[in-house]
Write a structure and sequence with these properties.
The protein is α+β, with helices and mostly antiparallel strands and about 650 residues long. The chain is built from 28 helices and 19 strands. It has a 5-stranded antiparallel β-sheet, with helices on both faces. A 5-stranded antiparallel β-sheet has the order 7-6-10-9-8, with helices on both faces. Strands 12-13-16-11-17 form a 5-stranded parallel β-sheet. Keywords: ATP-binding, DNA-binding, Nucleotide-binding, Transcription, Transcription regulation.
């Protein structure tokens, strides 16, 4: 706000900036920024600026909506000029993409010459740079208007920029940017004050935020001190009657609640039986301690909610239930732990999360864990594999359909996955497989938070947090024309990259121990001890199938008590003696081949059911069918096929 309120329009700052660029030896012919962060470095930068990104996002969207359709794009940078977020129209985004104006690129003058963002940071004030005022020729077609964003201490922590073709930029464009930057500063300042007041306001906020749930407080002797209207409706007693009762008259287990809070433990989302006037009910209870100024527990606030059994059942039926949590994720690799901590920090964000990583790295496990760590954990978690749904069904699956929308449409219509996920999370796996026309519809849902059913015209509002995942390089898909640029930037707001197993070698022994214990217990077989010499080969194996491949291998070892030849021998077959033993033990490819045959036979050649049972996408299954030369139409031949005869294996 400080300098933003009194920015000036004179252009002496252009001369100063050009002088700095000449001193730094910036070339007029430069096209790309000389500094572009990627992968771990970019993810770290985004994590460091999480508060700025989340605070700026609504104002950045509002600013863009003013000029949407006029070939503008908005950019948010950090205090060093590194791009954190980009949104804009398709045509101009294409040009920006070609010039590497993407998250991670530095717009500081030292890396790309005079431009509104870098110059605003250098000058400490809002600036507008138009046409040839840009130091490099590549930007001469544009006018950029940027304002610095300062924290409550007055330090520049970022910039907000609006860029468009020079002939379309209005004289008030910079004023709009300054107003948005000021609003972001006020939001950051308010958030800072709110954080300081959180503890002091805890009692009041607990009560206000919990309405319309049933709320009451008691002292440590069980005397009821305060109640709200919902409590009387839930229990069936009037206010006078309840004040004459003790807290343990109302529900079973009060002693456990008090002991937990006295012992500094929590009591959150536990199902309890309550003694209502007419009958005994099961409710969900969370209890919160109220401390005095000396930190001594004085009272307890109880929040009663209805147990959402119907919703939980629906979640199990219409999507994979979110069963994984971060504490169930195995790993000690430093980079992997940092990824988990970053995922926890963004769990409550409303922004779209994009999880990237190779097949088998655990993208859905992360998605479920994020959901269960967020304030949406009691709401639906709907998983959709975009690569497994036939192209002609994906629109109705995602957005639903009205009665009569097509032949065979259910009477009364049908809700789509987005409606089913309302209030919760939708997980779009293999997002890179989504058809281009569906990408347009998805972009509308992200921008407008509404869906339109197939055959309908009514806009249905949905409150859904989107987590997308892909094993593809979406930037390359954009360059190939297979994925929309504007959707890519909308999805790439909060990216998470999951390292392949070969980059987490220190986690391999830990994962082997975990799989050996859990799988042997499930299979009712004894764990198999892996000799140290073989463990070394496990650690240095490339693991193209990542954690999923490792888990399948451990299951094979438990069942056969043999290590497949290609794993045991590593890259050098002379390292470990290989004894000729049973000829019925398969290599990994052969085990996979036989397993796919077995599942295809079980589901009578149905590709969708087979892929779902195997836990892979339809496209992946088709590739494996082609690889192994499987004829799904001849089920009789599949049922009589003999296992291939193999060569040597390595016994333990």
């Amino acid at each position: 706000m400080r300098n933003n309120a009194n920015f000036i329009f004179e252009k002496s700052y252009i001369e100063r900036s050009h002088h700095r660029c000449r001193q730094m030896g910036i070339e007029y012919s430069r096209i790309y920024s000389s500094r572009v962060l990627t992968d771990d470095f970019l993810q770290k930068k985004l994590a460091e600026n999480r508060n700025l990104i989340l605070s700026a996002e609504p104002f950045m969207n509002q600013l863009y909506n003013f000029v949407k359709g006029s070939n503008f794009f908005a950019i948010l940078t950090d205090g060093e000029g590194c791009i954190l977020s980009v949104i804009g129209d398709e045509e101009i985004l294409s040009e920006a993409f070609e010039l590497e104006m993407i998250p991670g690129a530095s717009m500081a003058e030292a890396h790309i010459g005079t431009n509104a963002m870098g110059t605003a940071i250098a000058e400490g004030m809002p600036v507008q740079v138009s046409g040839k005022e840009h130091y490099i020729r590549a930007y001469h077609r544009w006018t950029c208007s940027a304002a610095p964003i300062r924290n409550p201490q007055g330090e520049i922590i970022g910039t907000l920029d609006l860029t468009g073709y020079s002939d379309l930029v209005h004289s008030h464009t910079l004023g709009m940017v300054v107003a948005a930057a000021n609003a972001i500063e006020k939001m950051l300042e308010a958030k800072s004050y709110n954080d300081e007041l959180t503890i002091a306001k805890k009692h009041i906020e607990t009560i206000i935020d919990s309405i319309p749930a049933g709320i009451l407080t008691s002292d440590l002797n069980g005397k009821i001190k305060a109640i709200n209207k919902s409590v009387t409706e839930i229990f069936g007693y009037d206010e006078k009657e309840m004040h004459q009762m003790k807290i343990w008259h109302l529900f079973e287990g009060w002693t456990q609640v008090k002991d937990n809070l006295l012992g500094k433990s929590s009591f959150i989302d536990e199902d309890v039986y309550v003694n209502a006037r007419k009958n005994k009910l099961q409710l969900n209870l969370s209890a919160y301690p109220i401390f005095d100024s000396e930190g001594i527990l004085r009272e307890i606030t109880y929040v009663f909610k209805e147990v959402k059994r119907a919703r939980k059942l629906a979640t199990k039926i219409i999507g994979r239930q979110a069963i994984y949590t971060f504490d169930k994720i195995i790993g000690k690799n430093e980079r992997f732990i940092q990824t988990i901590e970053y995922a926890k920090k963004i769990a409550d964000s409303k922004s779209t999360i994009l999880i990237m990583g190779e097949s088998g790295t655990g993208k859905e496990i992360f998605a479920q864990s994020i959901h269960n760590y967020s304030n949406r954990k009691e709401e639906p978690f709907i998983a959709v594999n975009c690569g497994a749904i036939p192209r002609n069904l994906i629109e109705s699956e995602l957005f639903g359909y009205e009665e009569g929308a097509f032949t065979g449409a259910r009477k009364g219509g049908n809700a789509g996955k987005f409606e089913m996920a309302d209030g919760g999370t939708i997980f779009l796996d293999e997002i890179g497989e989504m058809p281009l026309d569906m990408q347009t519809n998805l972009l509308r849902v992200i921008e407008e938070s509404t869906v339109i059913r197939v055959g309908g015209s009514k806009q249905i509002p949905v409150n859904v947090r989107i987590i997308a995942a892909t094993n593809k390089d979406l930037r390359q898909e954009v360059e190939k024309g297979h994925f929309r640029k504007d959707l890519y930037y909308r999805l790439h707001v909060l990216p998470i990259y999951l390292s392949p197993l070969r980059e987490r070698k220190d986690d391999i022994p830990l994962l082997i121990e975990y799989f050996m214990e859990t799988l042997s217990r499930r299979l009712n077989k004894r764990p198999v001890e892996i000799p140290p010499a073989y463990m070394d080969h496990f650690i240095h194996h490339p693991w193209p199938g990542n954690i999923r491949e490792l888990e399948n291998l451990i299951e094979l070892i438990i069942n056969t008590e043999y290590i497949p030849l290609d794993i045991a021998a590593g890259q050098d077959h002379k390292k470990i003696p290989i004894a000729p033993v049973k000829e019925s033990i398969f290599t990994l490819d052969q085990v996979e081949h036989q397993h796919i045959l077995k599942v295809i036979k079980k589901y009578k050649g149905n590709i969708s059911l087979t892929a779902d049972a195997l836990g892979i996408g339809r496209n992946t299954l088709y590739r494996k069918i082609e690889k192994y030369g499987i004829d799904c139409s001849d089920l009789d031949q599949l049922s009589t096929a003999e296992p291939p005869q193999l060569g040597n294996v390595v016994p333990f």
